[in-house]
Amino acid sequence: MTTPDSPVIRILLADDHALVRRGVRLILDQEPDLEVVAEAGDGAEAIALARSHEVDLVVLDIAMPRMTGLQAARELLVLKPGVRVLMLTMHDNEQYFFQALKAGASGYVLKSVADRDLVAACRAAMRDEPFLYPGAVTALVRNYLDRVRDGEEPPERVLTPREEEVLKLVAEGHSSKEIAEMLFISIKTVHRHRANLLQKLGLRDRLELTRYAIRAGLIEP
Predict the structure, then answer these.
(1) Where is the Response regulatory domain positioned along the sequence (predicted)?
(2) Residue 105: CB partners within 8 Å, gap ≥ 6?
(3) Is residue 14 helix, strand or coil?
(4) Cβ atoms of residues 32 and 9 within 8 Å
(5) Residue of 83, 76, 72 whose CA lies nearest to 41
């Protein structure tokens, strides 16, 4: 809890449902130390608003159009290294939870209990303390034990941010020409990234890349 002399935590809220944003804003704005200063409807808009607003904390929905909350989190932390990020989601999903942590999020809050957990998660994030929803510790331990048993290396350590961008766009069905135009790179570079993805991940074709992208939380099934 902040003291009366502490500055108000300025929050950017991003969710593609206006009704959800309204409800979350009501929860946050009734706290004296929390203030929503900007709202976005997707990840790309959140990044644009972060450029034009002074914010301390960004609350991102995971599943949003144009750019997922996970992708936006990575970009925001590069754009503003000092900002804190919380993921807000309806998905009690271990895969999304781990992706959120790897993206640099300070916490993962379920929408179903946002009225109970969100305020505490915001304050914890500003203290540089991770916020784990109930059940997350069990998931962390189980995931770790599974990886040790299977001898797996976390896949996110394998891919560069650019390769991940190409992977998402390939999985969404974009052609090499479209990807080149969207990322401002040459078609030859797209082909090289795609070949690297297949080699690094041990996959054979677009279908397997798409399945991997779903498992990695880059696109929704």
Answers:
(1) 10-126
(2) 60, 73, 85, 86, 87
(3) strand
(4) no
(5) 72
Q: How confident is the model at residue 123 (pLDDT cuts 50, 70, 90)?
A: very high
pTM greater than the 0.85 cutoff: no
10 Å Cβ neighbour count for 209?
20
| Cβ proximity of 37 and 49 under 8 Å | no
Report, in this order, helix, strand and coil percent for the chain, each rounded to 5.
55, 15, 30
Query: Token pair of 160, please?
Result: 């560069």
Distance CA 207, CA 173 (A): 10
- Count of beta carbons in the 10 Å neighbourhood of residue 97: 25
130/85 Cα distance (integer angstroms): 10
Q: Name the strand (E) or helix (H) holding 85.
A: strand 84-89
